[in-house]
Amino acid sequence: MISAKMNIKTLTLRNFRNYENETFAFGEGLNVLTGKNAQGKTNCAEAVFYLCTGSSLRIRHDRQLIRHGQSSAYLRAEAGSRFGTVVLEAEIYDNRRELRVNGVRVARAADFLGNMNSVFFSPGELRLIQDGPDERRRFLNLSISQTSRPYCVALQRYQKILDQRNNLLKERDAALVLETLPVWDEQLAAYAARIVKARREYLAKLSPLAAEAHAYLTDGAETLALSAERAYPESEEEIRKKLVRELADAYERDLRLGFTTVGPHRDDVKVMLDGEDARGYASQGQTRTAALAMKLAEVEIFKLLSGETPVLILDDVMSELDLPRRKKLVEKVKGLQCILTCTHAERALYGKECVKLTVRGGRLVP
């Protein structure tokens, strides 16, 4: 039973992207952000996602978020959840940032995640199906981290140890490397086992939900299935032992290549449409629908795991869908807060209840 609905009440942006100083007030249901291209709609959507996750799906370095000619950017959201009101803030500088929850600075990204969950979908999310394993791992990592702090911590520690192991593999003294590697392998495999187990459990929940959402969007014309590409033993301890053996077996290859070739940082997710690999089989339209189904399934996962609906951000999605699927999508998002960007609001499609906001040149206009 869903006990509450997460929702952003206000969003304040100062020197963020093309915004000088603007405050948005959102409703609890559908919020339609309209405006011509390159006016700041996507920047607003990105800011909401950043305050939910502490990261952007569009850039690598936070300094790219700072308005041109300025030295810092400031983002603030007041949000509601079943625990009451929460205020999320981020101050971004050229080479550092400061994150705060209810005025208290948090040192770790893991402590910022989960205060406000969100799901983001844009045409760029087609990478989830079309691109290499990196995109699907990123999807899993970000999604699981929002509802599992232990996973987020394990992932961060795994990455730190992996970096150290990779640095060691670049050493010229092979004897020293071979002597030291087993120490890193034990630590790496321990965190890897937790990651593998959590991903498997998550995919077991996600796959049927994605299949259900996909059947809804396509009227059952196709079947979607998700699964881990690689099989692992059942227990965490057996996974750990298997990875320790595989890491040892790969010493010669790892030394030759200069990086670690075994572990969950190399794993992938299979996305199958009617039993065929979607990467080589799906059309542009099929790819879009499959990716959207995965994101709608992610919404359901958050409901199950946190007891609250997340904020759904749909950036320029409607222009990519035909009218029947636009109608289905609007029907599907009822009951949760949705921030939807588009070039023009279709009143007949969105209804009179939606909150309509118009952006022009990084400013809200009447």
Which terms would index this structure?
alpha/beta, Glutathione S-transferase Yfyf (Class Pi), Chain A, domain 2, 24% strand, 17 strands, 366 residues, Rossmann fold, 12 helices, globular, six-stranded antiparallel beta sheet, six-stranded mixed beta sheet
The end-to-end span amounts to 39 Å
Count the DSSP helices.
Answer: 12
| Overall tally of structural domains | 2
Mean pLDDT: 93
Question: Rounded to an integer, what's the Rg over CA atoms?
Answer: 22 Å
CATH architecture tag of the largest domain: Up-down Bundle
| Percent of sequence in beta strands | 15-25%
The H/E string reads EEEEHEEEEHEHHHHEHHEEHHEEHEHEE
Which spans have pLDDT < 50 for at least 5 consecutive residues?
none
C-alpha geometry: globular
What do these coordinates show?
The protein has 366 residues and is α/β, with parallel strands linked by helices. It folds into two domains: 1-117 and 310-366, P-loop containing nucleotide triphosphate hydrolases (Rossmann fold, 3-Layer(aba) Sandwich), CATH 3.40.50.300; 129-306, Up-down Bundle (Glutathione S-transferase Yfyf (Class Pi), Chain A, domain 2). 45% of the residues lie in helices and 24% in strands. The chain has twelve helices and 17 strands. The chain has helices at residues 41-53, 109-112, 127-130, 133-147, 149-169, 174-218, 236-249, 251-257, 278-281, 284-306, 323-332, 347-350, and strands spanning 4-5, 7-16, 19-25, 30-34, 72-81, 84-93, 97-101, 104-106, 118-121, 224-228, 269-273, 276-277, 308-309, 311-315, 338-342, 355-360, 363-365. A six-stranded antiparallel beta sheet has the order 3-2-5-6-7-8. A hairpin with a 2-residue loop joins strand 5 and strand 6 (84-93). Helix 4 (133-147) packs across helix 5 (149-169) and helix 6 (174-218) packs across helix 7 (236-249). The longest helix has 45 residues, at 174-218. The model has no long low-confidence stretch (mean pLDDT 93).
